[in-house]
Amino acid sequence: MKNINARLSLMMFLQFFIWGAFFVTMGAYLLEIFSGEEGLNTIIGSAYATHNWAGLLAPVFVGLLADRFFNAEKVNAISHLLGAALLWYASTITEPGLFIWIMLAYFMLYMPTLALVNAIAFANITDPGSEFPKIRVWGTIGWIVAGFIVAQTVLGFFEIPLLGWITGVESNIQSTDIPLKVSAVISVIYGLYSFTLPETPPSAKGEKFDLKQALGLDAVKLLTDRNFAVFSFCCFAISIPLAFYYARTNDFIAAVAFGAQSPSFMAIGQMSEVLFMLAIPFFLYRLGVKWMLLVGMLAWTARYFLFGFFPSSTALVILGIALHGVCYDFFFVTGQLYVDKKAPKNLRASAQGFFNLLTYGAGMLIGNYVLGWWGDSIALDGSTSEGWLSGAQSFWVMPGILALGVAALFFLTFWDKEADDNLEKESDLSPVVE
User: What's the pTM?
Assistant: First the structure.
């Protein structure tokens, strides 16, 4: 069993290393490769929106293929091998429209594998409650290590010149095509490795495919509960400003503070995520669902206000990144726990799918287009320090105000004491890092 858990942990590490290696720095790369293009901020927003489009359709892919016809490990392997070719091709593209279409094709292959690796893990462990978090945390570690390797440093304390040795490029690798190529190479290795993973036959073989269930739309009936309806709307609305963080923080902190080392400092967010994950049972028991969710929303506001009002303060910029643990864990993980307790047993899977549809699907999808439109509307020049220092307040305060408005609405309209009582009865509140 220890051998299987080690193999599954390596699977998680590679899965998220690939994503973290190029996704964090993609904005900086696009600023460089498409410099001079009209509507550059919109191009960046559209490129990041591709993973949300793919996220909307991923349940259909998984439901049709991996759940009914083919072993999950084989679908995972083929998806990453094909994805490797697309990532390498993307690194050669110099036309914005084509780049966006290729990234959409890539994420149509990648996003379903997020569910596949969970399915592979759950099918091959005996005690999911205690074993899965220990396996899944290696995904977060993979994301962190990817940031260190691309930045070629660990928070500036010591150097990791691995990519410099291999490529001959000694500085600012994040603005080159190297992160895409690194992800492509690791995707090939991971794809081949996936064929060796424990066999995971389709779990719903022979069952009829239900599109409504796959997208989580069965859970729509839960909206007749006022509190769940308020929660669902706020989940959707708060995910719009969330997109600003994922798409533009790296090139922002590169311009105002950390330069080529910025991917390393972005990893502070994931480190914070792990730490606050451990604290969720403590805070959830003492604060309850409403205040946990509200603190998460207000942390978004605080983060964006720090970025907007104090872009020249390195310490406050770092604090804004470190707030990611509160932003993500207090809202998303608490939200997942709330949905699990709110939904009847037969609707729990659909309810979690509906939650993902509202947040990582619809909310962040709209957010990526909004951030592109907003950046171009204020004529943000994200390629220079001067451009970010002069445009930071206009760019970041807007999503901060939006997050504050959602938090106020939630505070005034949501109170579900029954959910707090149900969660307090749980003996194990250990959530899962995502």
Answer: 0.91
Pairing of strands 158-159, 153-154: antiparallel
Q: Are 392 and 304 in contact (CB under 8 A)?
A: no
C-alpha span between 74 and 82 (Å, rounded): 12
Domain with 388, as residue range(s), is 215-434
**Domains in the chain, number:** 2
- Residue where a domain stops, chosen among 143, 173, 202: 202
Model confidence pLDDT, tens digit, residues 86-104: 999 999 999 999 999 999 9
Q: What backbone phi and psi angles, to 5 degrees, belong to 233?
A: -65, -45
* Rounded distance between C-alpha atoms, residue 126 and residue 99, angstroms: 43
**Contact in structure between 255 and 385 (CB atoms under 8 Å):** yes
- Which tokens sit at 341? 């307790």
Q: What residues contact 105, with CB distance under 8 A and at least 6 apart?
A: 86
* Amino acid letter, residue 132: F
CB 358 within 8 A of CB 236: yes
DSSP assignment letter at 250: H
Residue with tokens 């379903």: 112
Closest listed residue to residue 248, CA positions, set 96, 17, 22, 26: 26
